[in-house]
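Our consortium's second objective concerns turning raw sequence data into structural hypotheses that experimental partners can test. To show how far this objective has progressed, the report includes one record in full. It was chosen at random from the queue rather than selected for favorable results. The single chain below, 487 residues long, was entered without modification.
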Amino acid sequence: MASMAQVLRIFSLMPLALGLYAADGGTVEVTVVDSITGVGIPGVTVNLTSSDGNGLKFRNWTGPSGELRFSGLTPGEHSFFFEKEGFSSEEPATVRVVSQGIVRLRKELDPLTTINGKVLDAANHGIRRISVELLTGRGQYVRAVSADDVGAFQIGNLSTGVYLLRAAPAHGTLRAPVYYPGVPTVAEASPIRVYGEKTIDGCDIRLPAQAVFAIRGRVVDPAGSPVAQATVKLKSADAHYLFEGGAPDAQAVSDGDGRFQFSAVSAGHWHLWAESGKLMGFVPVMVTQSDRDDVSVTVARPFALEITEEPSGPAIHLRPVDGPMEQEVHSSSPKGGKIVVERVYPGRYRLYQSPPKGYYAGSILLGARDVLGEDVELAEGAPPIRIVYKEGGGMVRGTVADGGGATVVLIPELSSPDYWHAVKCDEQGRLEVDNLRPGNYFAIAVRRAGALQDNAFPALVEQQGQLVHVGAGEIVMAELRLTAWPR
């Protein structure tokens, strides 16, 4: 008598017989393996969909060695989706089936990891219900969990990559977050490298007995005169993206001489800004091991910034380097190649733009100075910005040996991550990157895109990347090999 599993397996074959089967069809031999160990994974659910738009589907499961065979498939493209508890759901694999041909598809699934730890105070007691935030290796927020009543936390379903942890005191306090294992800044944080382990235990965050300090300063106008009755706000710089538009951690009002004070502030990186009517000003404040008595914030009126795009491209936005998200500004859509960005307050900004299709960013001119890839200081009376997009960029084509699904990164010399180019190889390890700004690039291929979040990745590129020169309108062929990561 057939078991229930056998009955379900028989019924799962029916959609194939109804639509995806052809007497002269082809065969796909699938092998699903653990990306870390290379061992076949049994019991993976494999969903097959024809790519001709008819929506026909077929489901089956891999055997003890992670293998599965599909026979009699109609010629054409077919997409395979993979599901298995404890493994990441990767992008589907698409193959082209030919009549009576055999296609061999090897699919690697990343095992998922769980991080366990506790948040402890200086007396080694667990801190209940505190928020624990997971960040990428470069400090970008991913998600948060709450510690339980004894300070224990668990963060699961983590793909291979580099992560940071921080304990975030309740919003509205004047205590800065503490990073694993117990340090005040992201630069001092210890990265947690996840590489297929089932669990990583002992990731305890210890909150030291923190001394508190004062921030004192003065609000002035552009002429240096004191501004009384200005509203002064303070917010942790480590959390400003998460709490965009939310209430500040603390608020004060300047006195008749423009002076203000915040007491009981922990060491850390803070954003401070002042508002008085239409006037506003921003300043970063770093508190270390003493009071800050020298903070001066200048409030000014907003100004309009004129930007010209040649040719006209998408809207742009200015992200503050030192200020909170409240200082970020977005432009309206360009009209006739011209953009006017309203309500820009003086400060340092990074300009983000996307070239029109078929172009690359040739230059960003602030007056006569090219500031492409640089932070710019903007104030009323600043010269207009001119963005020049150019056609005829270079192209890199090539292959990565045994690099099906690998990630290839092209990094311009002396460039920030904003101008990195990352592309995923196809199942045969082929790659193509177009519309590249002419110049020198370091090219590197890694199995996992999580490498890009590792603070050690730029050094890895410098040591092992292949130097590629791309000329205007030139097609450069690159033959790459996978670089081991993590090392």
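The partners drew two points from this record. Residues 279 and 364 are 29 Å apart (CA to CA). The helical segments are 4-12, 14-20, 457-464. Both points have been shared with the crystallography group to help prioritize constructs.
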